Structures are given as structure tokens and as C-alpha cells.
Amino acid sequence: MFAAGEEPLGERINSYHRTRRTEMLIKALEPEELDFLRQSTFGKILDIYENPPFSGAFGQYIIVRLLKVNKKYEIWILFAGTPVRMSLREFAIVTGLNCDKIPEPPLKKKNLLNEKLYWNELFGSLKSCTVDTVIDMLKKKIVKDRDTRIKFACLAITSSILFPSSHNPGIIREHVEMIRDLNEFLAYPWGRASYLTLITYIVSKDEIALSQSSVAIRGYVEALQLVMIAAVPQLKEEITHNWPVVIVEADSDGETPDEAEPPTELICSAPINNRRPTSSA
Hints:
This protein is mostly helical. Helix content is 39%, strand content 6%.
């Protein structure tokens, strides 16, 4: 999108997800409840201690190095002269989430107006409820039933990690109605839904938006960093929460993803600083 050396020097990518909130959720759960979630589709994204915290400065560094591609739900990032792909496949690898096709919504029932909303069963008269309130209810054991506590935790995960829309996210009402059946809720392809949210926001940003000092992107933004760490493992030692990453880029011949040989695996097959994309021409 930008000529080499002319990338905007912004400050950060603004992620609405806060690792501290996830830590609080983990601490609020009983050991057997946490074990249950770690065995579920959400298990990998709860392993927050396995990766460095998200660096907004590094996020900004890679987002302004997007390549223009034709595919609607795929992005390529030029890193040290080599294109790195992020598609649904890479997202599934780094998050461990279910990325199957999203099922067709069920037909609306004629007596829907007479059906009691599940929101009222879980949250009573509350018209809205923040994720922080749910975590506090779990911590203080205001909610004691095991299944209900797990449902609260799942709703906190989808609302604050996979689909955050503010720094103080609220529980998403549509997800509350979906969690009537916990097994069906956990089997839902949350990975694909989250990826579509993230990738849609990324590709919607034009050169003007990316030139701002701070760029807000909804969805599980941390996946960008996880993909880069998987492709370049050395980055794990360099990325910190407070300091930007200083990276010296190798010279590039200017190949585009359409001309370069697409990677068959997420991990690069050779050290990235010594490798150029192979032209198919």
C-alpha cells in the first residue's frame, strides 16, 4: 500500500482486548471450570502466558506494510522483504478455534414473542451487563451453579476477546440467546466468525486511515502478532508491551503475492532475512 521506506510512522494499533481482563477471568474461575474451558475450543486463546502481550507499536509496524491483493478475506504483510500470508488457515493454526463454515441461521419461530428471553434467565432485570461485571460475579461467587458459571465465562470470552468493540465491552445479547445449549455454543465456528470480523476491519482501512497515529481495529487483533511470531519465532524475544520493535528490513525486489510462490506452511522454510519470495514468472 505504501512505497518501501515511506510507511507511516504511527504510534500503535488500538486493540480493545485487554490481557489483564483475561487474567482476571482466569483467576475468577474454579480449577475444574478452567480445565473444562482449556479442553474446549477456547483453550488455546486462554494460554496467555505462552506468548508476549500484544504490542500496539508492532501491530502498527506490520499493518502499514500490507500488500494490495485481490482476495477479499486474505491479507499479505511484507516483512524483511518477504510476504507473510494471513488467511483463515493461519488464523486457525495460531488460535486453535473452530473455523468451520458458519451454519445457516435457524428459521424464526412463530411464537418467538411469547418465548422467554434467555437473557432474563441469566441476568434478570439487567438491561445490559459488562464483561467486568460478569467477572466480578464469578470472582465473588454470586453465581454458584457450575454450568451457569461456565456459560458466563464463555460469554466473557466471546465479548472481550473474539469480538471486542470497546475498552469496556458488554456481553453480546445475541450470544446469550445462543448459549441456551452449552454444547451447541461451544461447537459453533467462533474462529471463522471472529476472523471475518477482524479481516473485514483490516481491509476496510485505506491509506488515509493507516496514516493516522492510532488505528482502531475490532476483533481478535492479537492474531496478527501470533501469525508473525509463528512465521518469525525470533520475534517472541523482541516484542514487549511498552517498547516499539526496531527492525531493519532487507532489500525487496518488489514482488507481489500474485507473483510470489505462496507458502504451503505458516512457518517460513528458511531464515526470513536470507530468503526472497520465488517468482513464478
